[in-house]
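Wait, mind explaining this?

_____
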Amino acid sequence: MFLNKWKHIFLLFLLTGIALFVTKSFWYFPSNGIEVSFTSQAEKPIAYQVFYTTSDKRSFNADEKATRSVQAGKHQVKIMLPVEKILRFRLDLGQFPQKVTISDLKVSGKTTVIMDKLSGFMFHQIDSSKQDGKSFQLASNQPDPYIIYKTPVNIETKWQVKVDYYILFIIAVISLLAAHKIVKYLAQFKFKESSSRIDIVFVTVFFVLLFIPMLKISSADKSAKENRMLAKYVPFIKNGQVNLKYSTNFESWYNDRFLGRDVLINIWSFLEQKINPNQGNDKVLVGKNVWLFYKLDNSIENFQNRKLFSQPELEQAARYLSAINSWAKENGKDFYYVIVPDKNKIYGEYFPTAIYKTKPDSQSRANQLIQYLREHTEVKVIYLYDVLMQNKNRGLLYFKNDTHWNKFGSYFGYLEIMKEIQQLRPEVPVLSNLKWEETTHYKGDLTNMLGGSVQDLDTKYLSPKITLVQNCTILQKIAAKTDMICYNPQGTLRLFLKGDSFSTFLLDYLRLSFKNTQSFRSYDFTAQDLQDIKKNSDIIILETVERLIPQSLNFTFPSKGA
């Protein structure tokens, strides 16, 4: 009897240990890397970038960097560099950061280098610098300020292990209880009838299958297939406080990272395509001839003109755009609001018949807004629907497997914009007589969202045979958003461009017509933007794709500008 009791206890702990080992991805977090830490005190939000070199044969480059966005005020900043060794170190201060105070700057691995001497750094685009104790007071109103530590740091990684003891305790208790039930069932098995043996087989297989998805938890930051950032793990106890949303955070984290997730997505997409090929998924609609269309942001309702503006929304739009236009006029600048049609507005005939035939003849949301602005404001609006419809027979203007227009379509948009600009600024040159070559867009963002196989590999699009201006400086790059400034010695006037991802291909042409082109992936204007426009720009463009018109207008223009 005593021996049986110890066998029972041994089996309990053995099964619990196996369960803890299988689920270690949930509570055991080994990491190796080099940590950069400092205290930041700044007047405005900053996207800090740490550049490093891992070889004495390489200089600083975009492949060896880490970014951390920090809000205005005083904050403790920790940035982990996922490398085994770094040789040299550079800290970028974002774009136009104004006044910044950096204190207690150090790089830690097996050893720690404390950078407490301002004289130990080289400076780039830093307007002024001063040391106060261990604090560095830096100021810059330039696009790319950074400091480089002169002496090689030569720091190797330190292996670190973090254990979430709260989750470890929870899993251990649940595993112990489950093990107790299994051992108890096994102990009673010899008393059961032969017909019940299938029950224990079923229970055993069931519990084994439960643990399989836990065998490997993905550590990736982004899903290439879905083109989105994955949920991050949020601990149960954070900064000494209980996370009341832990169950929701944990579910999101686990659902994004369990073993076999991509395989299940592919299987689901395959079955969904076979069962209902015209439906796609919650983000993508598959139309005729395998044309893919975006579903979110009320895209289909906007196509059918069932999503119109209310009177308060029109008034808000007019207030925001009028404020920009008035400020531009007061400061000798020209302002244009550019609307790019959704792909479905130009190629709606490829929608499934059930959707296309229900399109009413009533006024669209874009035309509703344009009419209101013309009646109540002096804002110059450029809606590119007509010019794209007039030229769609010359070649594909949008990607079949992507939400965006291609370089051929954006060129016609560019020509229409320049035609409007030249009415007031005839000296601005326009690219013309371009030569074109066929190219292939193999995999678009809609293909990634669909989660299935690559669509339409043989579809050809036209791209220009031109040498694009290369002297562009990236101001900051966060996720898919890139802000940059481009220079063109042959240009005359200067352009300030704000917009969404559709402005990217426009920039390829616009920067060849202007001496100085600043491009930002956002819709709102800040007081700092106004100061910069006053000094460095002549023309302002706010661009938006049609489905995002409400998002582009839901802002308040700074009451205190430059």
